[in-house]
From TrEMBL:
This is Dolichol-phosphate mannosyltransferase. The keyword Glycosyltransferase applies. One of its GO terms (cellular component) is plasma membrane. It comes from Kitasatospora atroaurantiaca. The lineage of its organism: Bacteria, Bacillati, Actinomycetota, Actinomycetes, Kitasatosporales. One of its GO terms (molecular function) is glycosyltransferase activity. It is a multi-pass membrane protein.
Amino acid sequence: MAVDLRAEITLSVVIPMYNEEDALPALVSRLRPALDGIGASYEVVAVDDGSADRTASILDDFRAEWPELRVVQLRRNSGHQAALTAGLHSSFGRYVVSIDADLQDPPEKIPEMLELAQRQKLDIVYGVRSDRSTDTGFKRRTAGAYYWLMRRLVGKNVTSQAGDFRLLSRDAVEALKALPDQQQVYRLLVPWLGFPSGEVTYHRDERVAGETKYPLSKMIRLAIDSITSFSAAPLRIATWLGIISFFACLGLLVFSLVAFVSGVAVPGWTSLFVAVLFIGAVQLICAGMLGEYVGRIYTAVQQRPTYFIGSDSASAPAPAPAKAVKSEERARVSVLS
Ligand code: UDP
Ligand code: MG
């Protein structure tokens, strides 16, 4: 029986990427020397999150000359956290580092993370941003509000300023894989696991090329997923809003009765209008909150995977340097194998 070389991999570096054709050459030119220098076996798991640009073909080209590069192709865009899940689940390494493709997180810190984890026997090493001066004011403020809220909901061990640049041991990855959660928000789940952890601080750079793949809509989605996956507090807010509006209505009732008895003719339209609007708004908020949780239950019951792997270069033969195997051919091979 052949020796399983996968068991020998010390480090897997998982990189979710979506339409990152502009950032890729710079990423490879900094990541490869950093990883070649650690003196241990490694693999780079590039998860192509259904990119519509040339990300896939550029990755193929790099793979022809960089054997440690492995490309996991998702069939369609599934989102950053789902792409991370795909990468974590596919990785083989004894340690797994996740990093963004846009070089905002410096690859040169990866050896430091690995060394710290091995030396102090840590299961998790967070990359902690020393400052966010390169982010826009809007991004800083929304991120600040997000972490403030998460620390209150999830607990003090949520490291603010820690995004998705972190190292996990195989044990931590297996613990994450065993969780039944559908929409996993790793920056909250990882601290919640309670493994011994350390930190490496770094300076967050500007995106090396291209534009952010996180528009406001995706940021709001992440915030809603984060809150509803960790707390039922919003449901209690709904109850409180209901109670408050109930007492407000009682007050209005007393007021209208007094007005009626004392014979004051109330023109009435404004107060009625405001009351109707208020009650309507409260009801909609409550229904919306219930909907978020019902939605989560619905997704959990469906048990659908959050991503689909179209092809994984680890299950296809490595392309020859001179003539790279075309991605369609590789996809066919991986379907057959
Ligand atoms: N990303 C992804 N799928 C998506 C959106 C983003 O895989 O649907 C990747 C993206 O390519 C990058 C990482 O997630 O490697 C973080 O995204 P980005 O840098 O755009 O976010 P920001 O730093 O602006 O918050
Ligand atoms: Mg970025």
